[in-house]
Amino acid sequence: MKDLELYHIKIYGIVQGVGFRPTVTRHANKAGITGTVSNRGPYVEVFAEGTKDAVDYFVDLIKNKPPVRAVILKIMVMKIEKLHDFLNKFSIIESSKTAGEIFISPDIAICDECKKELYEKGNKRYLHPFINCTSCGPRLTILDSLPYDRERTSMKKFKMCDFCDEEYHNKETRRFDAQPVCCNECGPSVYLLDKDTRERTHTGLAAIREAKRQIIDGKIITVKGIGGYHLICDATNRDAVKRLRTLKNRPFKPFAVMMKDEETVKRECILSEEQEKILCGHQKPILLLNKKKGSESDYSDLNNVSEFENVDIKKGLESNYLDSNDVLRFDNKDNRNSSESNQSVSNVVSKYDNKDNGNCLESNRSDYNNVSEYDNKDNGNVTKSKLADNISEYNNTVGVMLPYAPVHLLLFESDDEISKLMPDILVATSGNVSGAPICHNEDEVISELYDFTDYILSNNRDINIRTDDTVMDFFDGKPYMVRRSRGYAPLPFMLTEFEIMDESENISSENIDEAENISSENVDESENISSEIVDDAEKPNRESHHKQPAVLGIGGELKNTFCIGINNLFYPSSYIGDLSDIRSIEVLEESIEKMEKLLECEITRVVCDMHPNYNSVMLAEEFAKKRNIELIKIQHHYAHILSCMAENDFNDKVIGISFDGTGFGEDGTVWGGEFLLSDVNGFERVASISSFNLLGGDRCSREGYRIAAACMFDLFDDNEADDILLKLHLTDENDLKALRFMYNNHMNSIKTTSVGRLFDGVAALLGITKVSTFEGEAAIRLQYYAENYIIKNSKNFDETTIYFTENDEIAKYFTKNGEIKIDNTNDIFKYLVSEVLKTNVMDEVLKERLAFEFHYLLAMFTIEKTLEISRKYEVYNVALSGGVFQNKLFLKLVKDGLQRADLKVLIHSLVPPNDGGIGLGQALYGFVNNFKNK
Q1: Which of 212, 320, 454, 556 shows the greatest Cβ crowding within 10 Å of its Cβ?
Q2: Does the pLDDT value for residue 78 go beyond 50?
Q3: For residues 229 and 223, is the Cβ–Cβ distance under 8 A?
């Protein structure tokens, strides 16, 4: 008989709350291993006794057959001396904690097995609104503390019945050691509340049936999910949607919808293979999907998009103004070393024919290419859309998610006749007041959503950590985050290229075998998680209460999320909200304390914005003073660039292009269109767009006509500017006098270089929208018009077609060899004014053309300016960040042009480019400049 050996095994990653210990136990039994497994907080710890061959087989099973929802980052295996007798069995032992890296599992959508059981008559959990197993169910939102065990969750108040208890302790079942396990007899219960009396009018399935009746009747129901409440109504009922808009004072902002199943999504939207994986995966975020048209004839324009895949966005310029020989000169040349490097990037982007990723238009919306795929499917006959037209107006996309909690599934379908009358699309918008955090208990719902809802479908399982839905777009076939929350937060980003490890924490041991880096088929590469964790061997049950030092990036004022950095792990929080609302500030404070507790760390430094009046800054100041810790303030747009560098684990100098709405500049003006030469130690502002005045201060973020007026005042003589403004009906005489007074006397006016505000001003100039009802509305509509121009004109492009048909004026902005002649963004605005003044009728066709030309010219200016900086400073890396880069048309134009110029371009994916991502950049700066300088 071969000698038995004892091995100490540590498994790092998302190994809490995913059924990891039960899976390890099953693998041990299969391999003939005795020993123990336990959660240690930062990792799962295994002591495995068996022959070397058996242990190798056991480790191989862990590596290649982990739980479905697990993410293994590192497995460490070390042979040790035998410590005690394991009594010839393998056991799950009581969890004990130790300091170190911690990976908290996000909440997981219902799995296919539980969904099957939910509708299986005779099953103990038939139609159970809280069905879950080791592979699915709530995690972060029910957590009190780690390790993840039932007594440390909000399920601790529900005693398991004998049936659930047996499954929980039986290692052969799907619910072995599943912490939220319950059934209809012993788990939480749902009920329908009367919002006035707060009495439970219906309970159990009767409550769900009554909620359905109310939805069918056009009512609005507030429904408690996993991380908070949704406001839900019939998304196929225009009147119901209109009523919700009126009650919530949300006239145009798109609503997210929940669709019954994948077939419904395919009926309404264009769905790529990559998007389908995310839509149906275990995170189930809200995906922004391209809408289909209502009939096949309506859809015909899109059918021709695929014909344009290899057509050059600049082909018309070539054929109209350029000598094609001049254009071709630049092909196959090294931009950095050739004499042509002094030429404009326009030379580079002008020859995209037959190049991979070369054509800007083919991916202006990442899904356009999928239109042709739809035409060739069996279900190619387009069915009339059931989606109400007021769900997302002036927008080619709609935010879609699939049911991710059992109660959602039961709203669409259960064992009753009324399910046959239920719509297969529901509005499912966050249950909150605009800008405030999502409501997570009944008191908040009653106090904040009373006027918005008719009934409340709630339950008695507490939400310990509120978590809103994640919102995700797609760009170049990859996720492109808009709001990172449920399903993703607080998964950490692990940075390996930055010197951020405190030397006192960098423990090594001669007794440690070389760590084996384990990868898993279940690790999604897009999670951007890798590991170089090395730790010394712990004795069984040894506990350490040492709290590791951490840095807090408190985040932005809008779309707030914070980030805590511990060594090389950075944990962005779930979405909080806009800090102009006192409720968001309170939730931010509460969430920081909870996350600090869960991560077992001690915040020793806090990093915030520079703006003197931001609530986030005042909170950071108070936080630092109370704890007597260091406070660092860094510039807003620099934090954007650092967040992009951090997500890409990139530690080299970059040209940071940071375009957004507004941010406090180091010179006391408002920045927002910046070219920053950046690294982790600091930045230099090397260029920006043309400045203009914010006439009326913050009102300009809503009233774009003020921006248009300010630009007119800069570009034209007084009388001429006034005449143009009145002619275009951008303002009346009284308002014009007020604007002129502010401009001439520098009152209630400040200089800005904001690209976001420039978009607002152009949208007003083109008659698209003068006043916005929600943040970003003007820019979204401007993008919508530009995309429509692409869609409608794509079939006209071929080798001989002049691109800018009916418009020779734009030619003056390009030299014969293609070099752009726009010195500043004022030139772009002036060109648009001249085009608008040529006509007495501002029709939709003209709006669409000029909207696209604005995007195009601004992108060309951005590329040209970046190349100029690159040549001057010999920096060939570019990072694109800021809310303007949520505009995928503009992003595509800029990114492709820079890449064709042989520059390395960093963009975001799982961290939002908007203010929801700057906490990561703040935390990175705080940690690098903390430990490096100790």
Answers
A1: 556
A2: yes
A3: yes
